[in-house]
């Protein structure tokens, strides 16, 4: 795919300075730009690269004024970084705009789907599946019975969507994701053996939810495991049964959330965080990486450590911990008998 500077400026509502007909077919970093590529300049510390890059087109802020002659064509926009992100989204839409049914596939007679639907080879649609318009399902995807998928959602290769799962509009489910596997529910008997507790609920993803590769979200024991609108999950996250995550919360890789935990909206949770079950975490909470959360958390708290402390208290404590050998030595010196 090739785009000219004038076409790109039209998409981004920008102004061309240079050759409006110069064409690009790939994207690049500014320091690695080659002929036929488009790049951007947003961080001032990279400004010197604009005079040496071989990129054909460069997105810059409207107030940028070159101090030397440039060989590249400029497109001036309000915010070069946001414009480049918008262009990446547009590029992905064009690249992934597949439609039609590949073979071999299985579609139940009771399954329905909307316009501009793509289903990749070796995929399976179970009974009573309902799929909206502009949905893209890549090869080797399993969609169980009674699943509902909203418009403009993409499910990448190898994902497994168990029965009764509900996925909203504009969601992205990456490869290897498993939605709706049984929650970890077992009860011990008098002999110390464990019997499985049936997991009869489902998983619900509201609109604009992203789920990273290899992430697992378990169905509820009763009711639903729910990810509210705009939740963004990184790769390799485990979310247990009956968890609820509030709107626009973001969670980094390798975090584990135990059953029935309730997490508020607009939270930011770092990588490798462990959250115990049956607690409530408030809104706008920030949790640093590798923290362990074992208690209820109020709105706007910032936590670090395991068990987690308030962020400021953790840093103060860590200073004392680092100095502990020196403090022990001082105490030993003070306790030595005088004259020795």
TrEMBL record:
Reactions mediated catalytically: a UDP-3-O-[(3R)-3-hydroxyacyl]-alpha-D-glucosamine + a (3R)-hydroxyacyl-[ACP] = a UDP-2-N,3-O-bis[(3R)-3-hydroxyacyl]-alpha-D-glucosamine + holo-[ACP] + H(+)
Keyword Lipid metabolism belongs to the record: yes
Keyword Transferase: yes
Active site: 241 (proton acceptor)
Pathway stated in the Swiss-Prot or TrEMBL entry: Bacterial outer membrane biogenesis; LPS lipid A biosynthesis
Keywords linked to the UniProt accession: Acyltransferase, Lipid A biosynthesis, Lipid biosynthesis, Lipid metabolism, Repeat, Transferase
Enzyme Commission code(s) on record: 2.3.1.191
Function, in words: Catalyzes the N-acylation of UDP-3-O-acylglucosamine using 3-hydroxyacyl-ACP as the acyl donor. Is involved in the biosynthesis of lipid A, a phosphorylated glycolipid that anchors the lipopolysaccharide to the outer membrane of the cell.
Protein name (database record): UDP-3-O-acylglucosamine N-acyltransferase
Organism: Robiginitalea marina
Gene: lpxD
